[in-house]
Design a protein that fits this description.
This protein has 12 helices and 2 strands, in the order ααααβαβααααααα. By secondary structure, it is an all-alpha fold.
Length: 310
C-alpha cells in the first residue's frame, strides 16, 4: 500500500485524478444549473452515454474529434427536448421521466453501436492529444498533474468559476435560481418559467453530453457499452454532497476522482485489497459528506415540483 504514496506513483495518481474529474465537472456544472431551475433531471447517465456513442460514430467516420464533440453535444441538446416536454408541458413526475430517458438512451446507444459495427471489428479513431503548457508543465509535481492534460481539461478548470458567476452575478442567473426557489414570483412579473426551465434542461443535457463525448474522445479509442460506468449517477451524488454550491461540488468530484484513481493504481501495483472495495469508496465518501450537510441545505425549495399557474 505504501507504493501508492511514493514519488512517480503519487504523481501518476494525482494526474489520473484530474483526468477522471474532467468529464464529471462538465456534467456536474450543467446539472447544477438544471437543478437550480427546479428540475430533477436524473438522466445524466443516459445523456453521457448518448454523447459518447455519437462522438464515437462521428470520430471513427470522419476522423475529426472536434466535429465529433460538436455533433455529440447537439444530439444531447436535442434529446433534452423530450425531458422538457414531459416535465414542463405534461408536468410528469421528474424522477420517472429521468429514469425513462436513461432507459431510452441506453437502448438507443446499444442499438446504434451494434448497427454501426455489425459484421466488422469496431473501428478505432484518434482522439484528443495531450497538450503540455510551455514552462508550466516543467514544474516538479504540479507540471505533470495540472499542466500536461487535454486542452478541454483546462477549460474544465474554469467552468466552475463561470457557472458561479452566471448564477450569482448575472440577472439571468438570478432568474434561474428564482425559478428553483419561488417560480410564482417570476411568473407574476410576466417572465416565462417554462422557457427558463427548458433552457436550463438543455444546458444541463448539453454539458452531460460534453462530458460523455470527452470521456470517449479523450481517453478511449473505441466504444464499449459500459463506458460511463455509473459516472452520471456519481454526478448527481456530487451535487447533493456539494449542497448545490459550485465549489463544494468541485471538492466532492475531486474526492471521488481521487478514490477512483487510487483504485486503478492499486490494481497496477498489486495491492492485496479487492478492487471492489475501491469501487465503493466514492459512494461511501458521498454518504459521509451527506451526513455532514444535515444541519443546513441549499437545495432549491421548488426542486422537483412542477409549476402550474393557479
Amino acid at each position: 500500500m505504501l507504493e501508492l504514496i511514493q514519488g512517480p506513483m503519487l504523481i501518476s495518481i494525482l494526474a489520473a485524478m484530474v483526468r477522471i474529474a474532467t468529464p464529471l465537472l462538465f456534467a456536474a456544472m450543467g446539472e447544477l444549473v438544471t437543478q437550480r431551475a427546479g428540475i430533477w433531471n436524473i438522466s445524466v447517465e443516459g445523456t453521457m452515454l448518448l454523447g459518447a456513442v455519437v462522438a464515437y460514430v462521428v470520430a471513427s467516420t470522419t476522423g475529426s474529434p472536434w466535429l465529433a464533440l460538436l455533433v455529440a453535444v447537439l444530439a444531447c441538446a436535442l434529446i433534452s427536448l423530450i425531458m422538457s416536454f414531459v416535465t414542463i408541458v405534461l408536468k410528469a413526475e421528474q424522477f420517472v421521466a429521468g429514469l425513462a430517458l436513461n432507459l431510452l438512451a441506453s437502448g438507443l446507444t446499444l442499438f446504434w453501436f451494434q448497427t454501426y459495427v455489425i459484421g466488422r471489428e469496431p473501428p478505432k479513431f484518434a482522439g484528443f492529444e495531450q497538450v503540455e503548457i510551455p514552462f508550466l508543465s516543467d514544474i516538479p509535481i504540479l507540471g505533470p498533474v495540472l499542466f500536461s492534460q487535454r486542452a478541454l481539461t483546462y477549460v474544465s478548470f474554469l467552468l466552475p468559476f463561470v457557472v458561479w458567476f452566471f448564477l450569482y452575478r448575472t440577472r439571468y442567473g438570478l432568474e434561474i435560481r428564482c425559478v428553483g426557489e419561488n417560480p410564482k414570483a417570476l411568473d407574476v412579473k410576466g417572465l416565462s418559467v417554462g422557457r427558463r426551465q427548458c433552457l436550463a434542461i438543455m444546458f444541463g443535457s448539453l454539458m452531460s453530453g460534453f462530458g460523455g463525448a470527452f470521456l470517449m474522445l479523450g481517453y478511449s479509442d473505441r466504444f464499449v457499452p459500459d463506458l460511463i460506468a455509473g459516472r452520471g449517477w456519481l454526478v448527481i451524488v456530487a451535487i447533493i454532497a456539494g449542497n448545490w454550491m459550485p465549489f463544494r461540488i468541485v471538492g466532492a468530484i475531486f474526492i471521488f476522482a481521487l478514490l477512483e484513481a487510487i483504485g486503478i493504481h492499486a490494481q497496477v501495483v498489486g495491492v492485496a485489497i479487492p478492487h471492489h472495495i475501491f469501487l465503493v469508496l466514492p459512494y461511501v465518501a458521498s454518504l459521509a459528506l451527506l451526513a455532514g450537510l444535515r444541519s443546513r441545505t441549499h437545495q432549491p425549495a421548488a426542486l422537483g415540483v412542477p409549476y402550474s399557474r393557479e
